[in-house]
Amino acid sequence: MHEVTTAWGPDVLGGDFVSRTIELDDDGDGAVATLVRLGEPTRQRAILYLHGFSDYFFQAEHARTLAAGGVDLYALDLRRYGRSLREGQVPGLVRDLAEYDEEILAALAIVRAEGHREVVLLGHSTGGLVATLFAHHHPRALQAVVLNSPWYDINDTPLRRTFSGTVAAVAAWRDPGAVISRLSGAYGTSIHASTGGSWDFDLGWKPIEGFPVRASWLSAIRRAQRRVATGLDVRVPVLMCTSSRSGGAGGTAVAPSQVRTSDILLDVRHMWDAVARIGDDVTLHTVPGGLHDLALSADRPRADYEAAVTDWIQRRLGPPA
């Protein structure tokens, strides 16, 4: 049995970060989620942050910058990720991205109960894909959505893009947990402090080379991406932020000069192409020199991204209360 804490307590980030466990319906391995909060709630507007694949919330400096823009900051470690990963669980394993609706709705209920009238859902990469579909399916749950390099298609050759979903679905039918791919460590190496990067994070929760890609997870991703491709009806304002360019687009090799100045995991053109299919009120902001996680970019592009988020929220929702 693992410990479940339903009250706020000290978080691994220390300082004024606190966290609490969110109990989930039993799906066989005791999955839980974890909600993190920065400081005491003092505003009526909040941001709820969703991380990406092979990831968890650790961007404390980023959180403080956004909070200074007039919001309270919350973050959710989804089931089988980061703070929510328990012994014996397969990291990140999920059969349908809609499973995450349970913890997002529970987190939103807590955020609302703490006095927040307005909530902005901010999703990075896979979290951006999850946030987009959540906003489509729950139109009254949010006031706005911010997307940080949302993952709307795989960055690979046209042939592999075409057949990856079918291959993953067949493999998942045979063995949902089968490892069908592994990620490159180039991105992780470029950002972690131990390998010359600027950021320190738990390599057990966010490995340099990422977690293995499993069949049921990739099948769920491809189904979700196809749903975005067919067109959605997100009825709240959306801000999509991406790097201004990709390195290694279309499955090509990443040049050394691109590693620290571009998105080397995804093709930003896939994100741009999706703007017209998400909803009627989508703003695109591109960040020169931005990395895949814009919040982990160098000082100038990171500041560009953070200012864009704060300014857009205040323009669309009004001054912070």
TrEMBL record:
Domain of life: Bacteria
Domain Serine aminopeptidase S33 intervals: 44-171
InterPro entries documented for this protein: AB_hydrolase_fold, Hydrolase_4
One Pfam family from the record: Hydrolase_4
Name by which UniProt lists this protein: Lysophospholipase
Organism: Serinibacter arcticus
